[in-house]
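Pair request: fold both.
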Amino acid sequence: MTLKLQPPTPPPVTVSNEFHGLHVSARRADAVRLDWSTPVPRFGRVRVVGHTCECKARVYELCTSGGLAWVRRIDRHSPGETVRVTHPCRVGEAGELWALILAGEAR
């Protein structure tokens, strides 16, 4: 007798309208003020390795390219958007900065 094994049926995928990405914590009174600048097309390819929720008018992205990393801030407003970036630095330093922004300890 030969048994035919069937792969298990995956559960149905449902998309919830309640799903959100990371939200930035409220800004603390002693938050560090960051130096934001206009982006310069320095890198050919940029990888976004982290981002905050799209439900807010301000979105942050943790970006990497060429062994460096930085945070990009996108302010969406009518009629367009304004993009600012931190200075590129080592990946570990940018990760620490990203954590400070998410915790409301830097803006």
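--- second member of the pair ---
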Amino acid sequence: MEILLRQLLEGQQQITKRLDRMEESQQQITNRLDRMEESQQQITKRLDRMEESQQQITKRLDRMEEGQQQLKEAITELKATVTNIEGQQIENSRFIHALRHNSEEVNAQLHNIGHNLAVLTGRAATKEDISELNAKFDLLNNRLFQQEAAIHQLKAVK
């Protein structure tokens, strides 16, 4: 009986040791679970920060798209302005060409007047003739100067 009691006592001690090991193992598992929960909370916080960051990036992209649209509109307006300026430049060039042509005509008429005067009078020019010619030259030179000034102003507008 004594043997049986010893065996029972030894069995009970073994069961107690096994229970102790199981309690230690359970405590280790609990500690690991606590660490896992902490890690999960840290991961959740990081994900929250990443979501906030993503929202900020989305807002910045939206602002950039708005700015790009505004730039496109400004470029369209500039193209229209350039087209208008080109049309005005063509018109100014035609006007300048017409003024130059008129100036050349005035010069030809002046030369013709001098030639006709010499043919009609058939004589050498007197002081009066020279004075009249000088007056006509002055008049024509003034017209020419005014036309060239107008040409210069139109070129400056370009």
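Observation on the second member. Residues 2-157 form one domain.
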